[in-house]
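Annual report, structural modelling task.

Input specification for the 2-phosphoglycolic acid complex:
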Amino acid sequence: MSRRPFLAGNWKMNKLVGEAVDLVKGIVDGVKGIIDKDILVCPPFTALSEVSKIVKGTNVNLGAQNCSYKDSGAYTGEISPSMLLDLGCSYVILGHSERRTYFGETNEIINEKAKLAISKGLKIVYCVGEVLEERKNNQTFDVIKKQLDQVLYNLDLNSVIIAYEPVWAIGTGLTASPEQAEEVHSFIRKTVSNIVKDAGKNFDVNDLVILYGGSVKSSSIKGLMECEDVDGGLIGGASLKAEEFLNIINNAK
Ligand code: PGA
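The model returned the following structure:
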């Protein structure tokens, strides 16, 4: 088993280029010498180029928040995996609930994006999670199983990180309790194990990194990461200030 703490910041549609540069400088300075954790920042597309220059050669990895399912051509407004690699990205977030909700992304579209991104050499952070109504109706496991089954079946799982982000916890200040998180994280590991078996894949599911996301703070990360199947966090709001993101990284054991 080769899992180690993984902390990712999803900056969403925040930070002008100058602000992004200031933020990432603070992060790079603060994580110097940390060699036992993986650290990732995902700025908006417009800041990738400048942020890339600052993280180059450091222990901070660079990711994007989305990519196209096409790699070049007449697709106005799209950004391809090759363009992200060209800027120094090694990761891309896919399937975030905000993309599913506001931009109509389906599991099928996300699978197309993921297939292309991985084939070009990116790793993906694939987000899954239920909305509040689904949780209330006891549909959480069904929803997540479908999100996993329909997207992962033909992917190289060595290039996949999963982020469980209950939609009711994103940006709301409501964090899932460690028990609620662990219940779903262990279900995710079991479900991926079944996908591996069904598809005859050669992959040890104990190596799968599963992040929790949804209002993570420096005060909640420790309890979440005490759970066996919680390997780190995908952090939105609290990753926009270097000090708080660094506290989260330091409290993640
Ligand atoms: P949040 O966002 O930490 O602001 O809740 C997490 C995410 O959406 O990735």
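The beta strands are 6-10, 38-42, 60-64, 91-94, 123-128, 160-164, 210-213, 232-235.
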